[in-house]
């Protein structure tokens, strides 16, 4: 049995100071030689003559460090996955043997055109016994993690060398979905803001939409963002498909099936009546009549809820006493309640009904963007019972627009707290939203619509959606269940790095997948105070030193509370 040279907490120590980490890298030093190769793994023995010196060098042998193995034809690049000593001695005696386990990931080869070394994934010339192992110097790190002639953005610096920028590959990151995971307070929102800001800086004609459930991002993007909240959001009821409409208007008990049938007939009746009334004001009577005859419950045609209520009243008048009127009355009461509730005015409160589909899509997805390529939708004040429906509508519209435009409008849909409305397990809960996001996850890349998911509980996220994310930005995770989920979706030799997720500092992350050239541990750049996501929690130590609230402020809060009708 082997014994680790370093215990887990010291293999990946907390980030060292900038002064220490920015010390110029010394010339490459042979630190060992290969003694075993098995598939994509290799083992090297540390050189005894440099063993003591390595303990004093700034570049210590740590999990995740990049090394290179010189072969006759190439330099093979590998990641340190373990450090051990099969025969430990006392006081670092010269007889002690140190082993370094490596995951082989790629190689440095000479480009045929530029005649310069470039990094290439995959290994064509495997190392053999006796091949020397050396630390990758700053130039090697730059070649591996900052690939030339590939669209990329800088988001931070490498943990191994703070002077080397950490870059994400834009096309692979965005076109194949990505996820940011981490426990509360580790810097997920700051990391997401950093990524989106850097993309916007390089791509002025981007189209992004952020579903902000905690009101964190209104000021994060400055004048580049169109900020929408329920007070200025227009998402008319007729844009909902029948599944979403059923979720919003029908009961959740045994009457749901009967109410759904009544609602379906009522919506078709209301849509046809709207088209017939429009035909009276239009010279194209024949065309309107043809449209009305082909209307279905899912046709995105305007209609009035008052016509749905009129249909229900008409049916109630025709019923004999042998049939139950409960489904009709409950559905009518639900519609009238929602229409009169100010919290739902963005969806049910319009006094006039017009075909504003083009305007609604244009504002949500920035067509034209008018200097504002990103939309931030503040959903923090949307009632919880309808939040699922709102997110479902927006996700479905994004996908349908991408399909009908044949990929002509590439866009990114950012979902904060994704596990809340696309949860794992209960298939009946949030079904419309889960279905809309799953559709984007599975087919979105074909039409230019992509997902960015943010969650603190990846174990509670729908596994179908999670499995489609080709790039993961894993920040500090404390629970074993969440760590296990990330390991199950890990590839490219990053599995050993994930063992140290609980030890990551704030703004630190392990990034792996298609969006990076190689798995890497990074530290995100510090964002300016004016562009940081807002936090609404104050430290108790500071907030309790002064009075927090007086009676007049409490009365104002209660008044707003009652006016909204919310119970939370």
What's this, in brief?
The chain has 568 residues and is α/β, with parallel strands linked by helices. The protein has helices at residues 8-11, 18-21, 48-56, 138-145, 170-175, 188-202, 242-249, 256-280, 285-293, 305-318, 326-340, 345-348, 357-364, 384-404, 418-421, 431-447, 463-467, 480-488, 540-543, 551-564, and strands spanning 3-4, 30-38, 41-46, 66-70, 75-85, 99-110, 117-121, 132-135, 152-158, 165-169, 178-181, 208-212, 225-228, 374-378, 411-415, 449-455, 471-474, 508-513, 520-524. The protein folds into three domains: 3-145, no CATH class; 168-234 and 356-543, Rossmann fold (3-Layer(aba) Sandwich); 239-348, no CATH class.
Ordered list of secondary-structure elements with their pairings:
Blueprint: E1 3-4, H1 8-11, H2 18-21, E2 30-38, E3 41-46, H3 48-56, E4 66-70, E5 75-85, E6 99-110, E7 117-121, E8 132-135, H4 138-145, E9 152-158, E10 165-169, H5 170-175, E11 178-181, H6 188-202, E12 208-212, E13 225-228, H7 242-249, H8 256-280, H9 285-293, H10 305-318, H11 326-340, H12 345-348, H13 357-364, E14 374-378, H14 384-404, E15 411-415, H15 418-421, H16 431-447, E16 449-455, H17 463-467, E17 471-474, H18 480-488, E18 508-513, E19 520-524, H19 540-543, H20 551-564
Parallel strand pairs: 11-16, 11-17, 12-14, 12-15, 13-14, 15-16
Antiparallel strand pairs: 1-5, 2-3, 2-8, 3-6, 4-5, 4-8, 5-6, 6-7, 9-10, 9-19, 17-18, 18-19
